[in-house]
């Protein structure tokens, strides 16, 4: 029923009948708000009771009942409710501007409008009056305004469509709630039997068993978590040890890099010395080639002189033949033709020999020109090779610098990768820590929730059991009372039947209410059981999350192990690359050596090819001359055979002439003539025999002379071999000089090695002193320092042993150099003695040549005597052959003309022969002059070698003095290096101080950031949970959230926190400024050291 306020009372039905005294002008409220109106919209906090447990649960809007019109009605109603709940009352019409209050208690101006929905009886501006038949139960004079909510509990006759729809929606919701309550009550009534109690007990038992299993699982999880924490702590310890090992390795790598740098410099110096020695060897090979060419020229000149001697012998033979022809002209006219032919042949042979001599001279000139061209080509090749060598050296230096830069970049990249991996390891460790902390926190929260849920569940179960017992006892008592009443009613009669029925009905209603309440409680218990199941599901989720976290931890551990393996692999790859680079350097050196050897072999091959060609030409010329000599010998034999045949022909002609004379004369005369001719023939035969014997003696003497000449030639060849042996000895002396230079270079290398050893010893001593000085400082790692000291002591002992070995090696080399110098002096003395012997042998050979010339002249005199005897014999034979001369005059005249021609030719040949003799003598003089020049050159070379020996002795003394001076300088440098090392150790201490401050600062930042992150995550979690709860409440109320964004107003607390943070950062920056200053000093010193090392490298390059 809607509340209707009372209206002014009327005593009569018409106003006109009222008197003036009966009028009442008292103020009456046009509308009186019902009591408890605002309590309808207040939040019912704490309204839930054991008998009304569903008071706080609101019915949520159904999705199928939500329409756009309902949304607009809901928003308007929500706005109105918010205004009422917040206490912001709407402004009444009387308090609005422009409102005029009348004296009569009439409605507001808004109700007097024609367009107002509350307009009822105001027609034509008349004042509405009550009906005469009005009473206290009649219609009020002024209806309330809907805007103020006065008609919320009305019947809805004058509501708008939206309000009507809202009202219908509210009624539908209430009906739905009632239907739902009825359904739950019926279901609870069905569950009131013993079966439900048994089921509840079973569920209770199952819940308790799950509780026990959950507690065991939680204990197991805590044990696993503790084990994981222990393993994580061991991993952290291993990581710290690994980081310390890495630091120590980096320190050892620094020392190793310094040693590698020193070794590299020593190898570069050794390579430069080797290159210079190779250049010197190439120059010496060029000098050897020049010596070989000069020897070939000398051989060619010797061959030319030998051929000149052969020509002289052939000319001598021709002269002998001519003399023989001249001696045989008077007696044997028939032999003139043959002699003429022989002369022609001899002339041809002489011409051929002259042509051969000319060709030999031309070939000698061409050979000399070719040798000179070859020498020029060789010099050009040497220059080209030197240019190529310089270009190759520059290219190799560029390649070495490029490779060194690549190695540096690769090492920097590997260091960067190692640092990144270490950073990733740190990140993973932090993530593991955060994940562990988060999981530990979540586990504690879950355990706390489980404990609270278990406590609540136990309390609820106990309370429900107690309620069930009380309800059962109450129900039994009520049933007993009802039975008693029924029995009493039956006993009292029919008058009380109705009363009993009414009481039974009331009891039934009470039972229904009790069952409803119990159903509600059971539903609440079921909801709690559902929440407990949900919590159990959450607990399962947390277990799964814990398992996932454990799996993630194991995965992180595997990733850490894999990263460690990757770091090891990267280090192995770095070491493998270093070994590959060393192998590449070694292969490059081997390639350079091979190329140099190939170039040297090519040059030697070219020189050997030239020598082979020259030898082939010499052998061909020797074979040609041997063939010519054989041909001349054969011609000589032919001439001898022809002379014997001519003698036989002369005998035959003489016989024919005698026969012809015997035919003319008489038989007596013929007989006397025959006897006489026989005697003459016998005498001529005996003369011929003597001539033949004389000729045979001459040939034997000539053969003896030829044998003597061959002996002389063989002795000359032996002397030439002796000269070549002397040349070899000179080459051996040069080789010894080269070995001395090599020894000198070895001494310099040993000296450099001694310098490096002393430097390293001084550095190690300085490091030991620094380490001993730092061993007493606080914060240093004494164990590491002691290990380093022991290592440095071992290294110092090794270096001292190496230094002693190097000193022994230097002394041995000096002794070897002195022995070599003594051997060179002995060789010089032996060379002088051998030179004297060779000169004596040359003088003996010249005496032998003079003796052979005297024997030759004596033999020529004997031959001339024999020829004169032959001519006398022939003149005697001409007296017996006067008759035959008459018959042969014509032939004689012709022969005389021919003889004249032959004489003229012979004179020409004599002149040519004299010219050849003069040329041969001049060639011999030139050859002798060349030999003397060679001897002088050899003496000059010996003097140069002696001067070089003296220079080497002086240089060895200067080297010893320099070594002593260098030892003094090394001591000074060692002192300077110790001071420098102490300064460097101080710088390292500052650097360590800076790094420690930086690490502590980074750790503080990391801890602060971790704490801030955890705090922010907790705040975000709290905010998200609060927002979720607020959204749940709002959604349960059926109110959609406002999507407008409100700017956050700055607060004083944020400003104060900003000021505190600024002050704290300023203090931290002031504390960090000291360490930054130390860092800047270290950077400046490092740059200065780098510039100094760069200047030193530049100076070394200039020195190269």
Automatic annotation (TrEMBL):
Keyword Nuclease: no
Main location: cytoplasm
Region span, Disordered: 120-140, 299-387, 709-728, 904-923
Keywords for the protein's UniProt record, in alphabetical order: Coiled coil, Cytoplasm, Cytoskeleton, Phosphoprotein
Centrosomin N-terminal motif domain ranges (all copies): 160-233
Gene Ontology cellular component terms for the protein in this record: cytoplasm; microtubule organizing center; type III intermediate filament
Domain Pericentrin/AKAP-450 centrosomal targeting: 998-1072
Basic and acidic residues biased stretches: 355-387, 718-728, 904-913
Localization annotation: Cytoplasm, Cytoskeleton, Microtubule organizing center
Bias type Polar residues, positions: 914-923
Protein name as it appears in the record: Uncharacterized protein
Annotated source species: Ophiobolus disseminans
């Amino acid at each position: 029923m809607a509340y209707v306020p009372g209206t002014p009372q009327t005593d009569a039905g018409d106003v006109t009948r009222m008197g003036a005294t009966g009028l009442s002008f008292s103020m009456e409220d046009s509308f009186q708000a019902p009591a408890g109106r605002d309590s309808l919209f207040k939040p019912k906090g704490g309204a839930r009771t054991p008998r009304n447990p569903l008071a706080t649960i609101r019915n949520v809007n159904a999705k199928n009942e939500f329409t756009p019109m309902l949304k607009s009605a809901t928003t308007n109603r929500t706005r109105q409710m918010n205004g009422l709940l917040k206490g912001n009352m709407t402004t009444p019409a009387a308090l609005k501007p422009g409102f005029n209050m009348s004296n009569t208690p009439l409605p507001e101006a808004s109700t007097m409008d024609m367009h107002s929905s509350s307009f009822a009886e105001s027609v034509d501006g008349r004042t509405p009056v009550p009906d005469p038949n009005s009473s206290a139960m009649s219609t009020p004079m002024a209806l309330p305004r809907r805007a103020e909510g006065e008609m919320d509990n009305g019947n809805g006759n004058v509501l708008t469509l939206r309000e009507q729809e809202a009202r219908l929606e509210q009624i539908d919701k209430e009906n739905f709630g009632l239907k739902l309550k009825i359904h739950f009550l019926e279901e609870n009534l069905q569950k009131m039997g013993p079966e439900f109690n048994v089921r509840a007990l079973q569920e209770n038992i199952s819940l308790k068993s799950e509780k026990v299993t959950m507690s065991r699982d939680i204990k197991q999880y805590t044990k696993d978590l503790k084990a994981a924490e222990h393993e994580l702590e061991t991993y952290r310890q291993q990581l710290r040890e690994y980081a310390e090992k890495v630091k120590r390795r980096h320190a050892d790598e620094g020392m190793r890099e310094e040693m590698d740098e020193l070794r590299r410099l020593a190898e570069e110096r050794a390579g430069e010395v080797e290159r210079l020695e190779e250049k010197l060897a190439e120059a010496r090979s060029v000098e050897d080639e020049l010596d070989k060419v000069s020897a070939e020229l000398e051989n060619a000149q010797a061959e030319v002189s030998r051929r000149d001697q052969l020509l002289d012998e052939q000319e001598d033979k021709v002269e002998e033949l001519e003399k023989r022809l001249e001696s045989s002209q008077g007696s044997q006219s028939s032999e003139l033709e043959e002699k003429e032919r022989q002369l022609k042949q001899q002339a041809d042979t002489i011409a051929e020999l002259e042509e051969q001599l000319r060709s030999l001279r031309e070939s000698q000139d061409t050979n000399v020109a070719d040798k000179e061209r070859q020498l020029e080509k060789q010099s050009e090749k040497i220059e080209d090779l030197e240019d190529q060598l310089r270009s190759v050296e520059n290219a190799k230096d560029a390649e070495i610098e490029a490779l060194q830069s690549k190695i540096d970049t690769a090492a920097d990249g590997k260091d960067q990768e190692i640092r990144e991996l270490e950073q990733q390891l740190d990140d993973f460790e932090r993530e593991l820590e955060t994940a562990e902390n988060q999981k530990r926190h979540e586990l504690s929260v879950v355990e706390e929730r489980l404990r609270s849920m278990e406590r609540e569940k136990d309390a609820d179960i106990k309370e429900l059991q107690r309620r069930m017992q009380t309800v059962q006892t109450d129900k039994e008592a009520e049933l007993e009372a009802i039975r008693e009443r029924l029995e009493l009613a039956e006993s009292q009669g029919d008058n009380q039947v109705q009363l009993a029925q009414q009481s039974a009905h009331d009891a039934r209603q009470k039972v229904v209410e009790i069952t409803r309440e119990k159903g509600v409680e059971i539903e609440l218990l079921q909801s709690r059981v559902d929440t407990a199941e949900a919590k159990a599901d959450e607990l399962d989720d947390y277990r799964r999350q814990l398992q996932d976290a454990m799996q993630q931890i194991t995965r992180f551990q595997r990733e850490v192990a894999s990263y460690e393996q990757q770091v090891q692999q990267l280090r192995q790859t770095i070491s493998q690359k270093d070994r590959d680079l060393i192998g590449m350097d070694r292969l490059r050196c081997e390639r350079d050596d091979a190329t140099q050897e190939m170039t040297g072999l090519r040059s030697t091959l070219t020189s050997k090819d030239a020598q082979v060609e020259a030898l082939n030409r010499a052998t061909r010329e020797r074979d040609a001359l041997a063939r010519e000599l054989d041909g001349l010998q054969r011609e000589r034999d032919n001439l001898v055979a022809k002379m014997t045949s001519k003698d036989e022909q002369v005998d035959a002609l003489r016989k024919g002439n005698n026969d012809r004379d015997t035919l003319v004369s008489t038989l007596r005369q013929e007989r006397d003539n025959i006897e006489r001719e026989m005697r003459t023939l016998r005498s001529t035969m005996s003369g011929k025999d003597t001539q033949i014997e004389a000729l045979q003696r001459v040939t034997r003497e000539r053969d003896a002379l030829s044998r003597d000449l061959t002996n002389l030639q063989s002795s000359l060849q032996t002397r030439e071999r002796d000269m070549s042996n002397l040349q070899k000895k000179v080459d051996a002396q040069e080789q010894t000089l080269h070995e001395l230079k090599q020894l000198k270079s070895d001494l310099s290398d040993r000296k450099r090695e001694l310098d490096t050893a002393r430097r390293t010893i001084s550095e190690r001593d300085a490091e030991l002193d620094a380490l001993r000085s730092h061993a007493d400082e606080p914060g240093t790692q004494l164990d590491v320092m002691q290990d380093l000291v022991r290592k440095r002591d071992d290294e110092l002992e090794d270096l001292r042993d190496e230094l002693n070995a190097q000193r022994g090696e230097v002394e041995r080399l000096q002794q070897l150099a002195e022995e070599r110098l003594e051997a060179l002096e002995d060789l010089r003395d032996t060379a002088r003695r051998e030179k004297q012997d060779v000169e004596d042998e040359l003088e003996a050979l010249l005496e032998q040549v003079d003796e052979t010339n005297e024997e030759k002249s004596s033999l020529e005199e004997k031959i001339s005597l024999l020829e004169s005897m032959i001519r006398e014999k022939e003149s005697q034979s001409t007296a017996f052959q006067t008759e035959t001369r008459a018959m042969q005059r014509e032939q004689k005249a012709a022969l005389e003309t021919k003889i004249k021609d032959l004489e003229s030719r012979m004179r020409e040949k004599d002149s040519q022969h004299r010219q050849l003799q003069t040329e041969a003598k001049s060639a011999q003089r030139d050859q002798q002059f060349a030999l003397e020049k060679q001897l002088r050159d050899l003496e000059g070379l010996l003097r140069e070698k002696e001067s070089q020996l003296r220079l080497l002795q002086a240089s060895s003394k200067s080297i010893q003095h320099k070594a002593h001076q260098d030892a003094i300088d090394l001591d000074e440098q060692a002192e300077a290096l110790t001071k420098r090392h102490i300064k460097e150790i101080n710088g390292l201490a500052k650097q360590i101080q800076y790094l420690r401050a930086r690490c502590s600062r980074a750790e503080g930042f990391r801890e602060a950031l971790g704490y801030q992150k955890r705090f922010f995550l907790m705040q975000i979690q709290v905010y998200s949970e609060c927002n979720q709860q607020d959204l749940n409440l709002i959604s349960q109320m059926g109110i959609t959230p406002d999507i407008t964004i409100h700017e956050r107003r700055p607060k004083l607390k944020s400003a104060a926190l900003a000021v505190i943070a600024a002050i704290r950062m300023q203090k931290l920056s002031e504390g960090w400024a000291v360490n930054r200053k130390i860092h800047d000093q270290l950077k400046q010193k490092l740059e200065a050291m780098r510039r100094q090392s760069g200047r030193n490298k530049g100076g070394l390059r200039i020195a190269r």
